[in-house]
């Protein structure tokens, strides 16, 4: 293989030159949708030649109607008969081609009751879904959709509803407000390592906030920095964030983060979601530590949330699943439990918090 073919293009070609002709000849009356969505670096457009060493190659997801589910085995048999060894010089593993339904596949991946997909997700449901999952399911490409269901759900997941968007931005500003003064305080007493660790957390929060401001889903750590460089604001912010990350001296760390805070504060004001807020940093009380006061941005955003349930949850400041935990297994818990028909524990947690506010 002399050059790398992006996975989305390879799978589109595989659909056009293998999947579609095979199904057309063997099952001409079948209505179906086909796409490349879900897990995989190629779905986000970040695959390289290194990606080809495992779980990569020409593959397509085929979606059929619930009423046609009895034809699943026949579809697989048609696709698995006399499969070519390679396609564009890439080995073909036809068993990576999945035949499913839109409610089954998306309901499981989102960790919600499949019937909610066409009604529209509850706003609290959005808080239980990792942004990486939303990026995977709203990304990729649809190659064909005879049944319409795939396009409908794909479009619903393009981005957060406005109140959820406000809620998540507020939660990240709240995180910044909780720790922005801790980084220089640790450095002030000679704890450069502790200061650097807190700075890394703040840098990640600033970057996460930028994804939200530019209405882009945040990918998981492997592609976090790569995707950040694609944001409009990255060229202005990167020098300050990189200096804050790489310096060995807390004062330089503080100065670089202060510049980053002011840029993001101005970005907030440009959204015109709240009244303009002062974008200058100030000392933290009588201490000579520069902070932006993340809490005031959080409060301003929460005041604009219309949904009463999200307003009640915002009081606790937890945010969504991405703000609550960065544990990979925990983030996948809703999907795993949905597979067994069990209740989403994070949804139960949010519901209990709302009930406590009502009492």
Give the CATH topology of the largest domain. Four Helix Bundle (Hemerythrin (Met), subunit A)
Summarize the amount of helix as a percent range: 55-70%
Distance between the termini: 65 Å
Strand residue content: 5-15%
The pLDDT mean sits at 93
Q: N-to-C SSE series?
A: HEEHEEEHHHHEHHHHHHHEEHHHHHH
Biggest sheet statistics: 4 strands, mixed
Give the topology.
Blueprint: H1 7-26, E1 33-36, E2 61-63, H2 72-80, E3 86-87, E4 90-91, E5 98-100, H3 102-110, H4 116-119, H5 123-127, H6 131-138, E6 141-145, H7 149-156, H8 162-179, H9 182-188, H10 192-213, H11 221-228, H12 234-246, H13 250-271, E7 282-284, E8 287-291, H14 294-302, H15 308-314, H16 321-324, H17 328-331, H18 333-339, H19 345-358
Parallel strand pairs: 2-5
Antiparallel strand pairs: 1-2, 1-6, 3-4, 7-8
Can you describe this structure?
The termini are far apart. The protein is an alpha+beta fold. It has helices spanning 7-26, 72-80, 102-110, 116-119, 123-127, 131-138, 149-156, 162-179, 182-188, 192-213, 221-228, 234-246, 250-271, 294-302, 308-314, 321-324, 328-331, 333-339, 345-358, and strands spanning 33-36, 61-63, 86-87, 90-91, 98-100, 141-145, 282-284, 287-291. It folds into two domains: 7-156, no CATH class; 163-314, Four Helix Bundle (Hemerythrin (Met), subunit A) (Up-down Bundle). The strands form three sheets. A four-stranded mixed beta sheet has the order 5-2-1-6, sandwiched between helices. The chain has a two-stranded antiparallel ribbon with strand order 3-4. Helix 3 packs across helix 18 (333-339) and helix 10 runs parallel beside helix 13 (250-271). It is globular and about 75 Å long. A hairpin with a 2-residue loop joins strand 7 and strand 8 (287-291). The protein is 55% helix and 8% strand. The protein contains 19 helices and eight strands. InterPro entries: DUF4037. It holds the Pfam family DUF4037. It comes from Paenibacillus violae. This is DUF4037 domain-containing protein. Residues 126-224 form the DUF4037 domain.
């Amino acid at each position: 293989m002399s050059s790398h073919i992006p996975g989305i293009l390879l799978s589109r070609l595989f659909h056009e030159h293998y999947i579609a002709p095979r199904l057309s000849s063997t099952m001409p009356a079948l209505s179906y949708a086909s796409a490349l969505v879900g897990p995989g670096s190629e779905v986000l457009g970040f695959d390289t030649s290194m990606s080809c060493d495992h779980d990569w190659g020409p593959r397509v997801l085929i979606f059929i109607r619930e009423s046609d589910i009895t034809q699943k085995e026949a579809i697989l048999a048609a696709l698995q008969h006399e499969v070519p060894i390679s396609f564009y010089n890439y080995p073909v593993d036809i068993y990576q081609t999945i035949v499913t339904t839109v409610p089954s596949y998306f309901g499981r991946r989102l960790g919600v009751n499949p019937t909610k997909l066409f009604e529209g997700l509850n706003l609290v449901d959005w808080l239980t879904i990792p942004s990486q999952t939303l990026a995977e399911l709203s990304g990729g490409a649809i190659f064909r959709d005879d049944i319409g269901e795939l396009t409908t759900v794909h479009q619903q997941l393009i981005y957060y509803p406005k109140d959820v968007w406000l809620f998540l931005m507020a939660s990240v500003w709240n995180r910044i407000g909780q720790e922005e003064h801790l980084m220089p305080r640790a450095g002030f007493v000679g704890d450069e390592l502790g200061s650097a660790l807190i700075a890394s957390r703040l840098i990640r929060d600033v970057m996460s906030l930028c994804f939200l401001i530019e209405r882009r889903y945040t990918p998981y750590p492997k592609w976090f920095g790569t995707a950040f460089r694609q944001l409009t604001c990255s060229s202005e912010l990167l020098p300050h964030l990189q200096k804050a990350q790489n310096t060995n001296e807390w004062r330089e760390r503080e100065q670089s983060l202060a510049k980053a805070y002011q840029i993001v504060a101005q970005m907030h004001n440009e959204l015109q979601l709240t009244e303009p807020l002062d974008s200058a940093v100030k000392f933290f009380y009588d201490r000579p530590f520069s902070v932006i006061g993340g809490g005031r941005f959080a409060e301003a955003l929460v005041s604009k949330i219309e949904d009463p349930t999200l307003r009640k949850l915002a009081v606790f400041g937890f945010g969504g699943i991405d703000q609550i935990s960065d544990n990979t297994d925990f983030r996948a818990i809703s999907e795993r439990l949905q597979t067994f028909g069990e209740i989403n524990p994070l949804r139960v947690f949010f519901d209990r918090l709302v009930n406590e506010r009502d009492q």
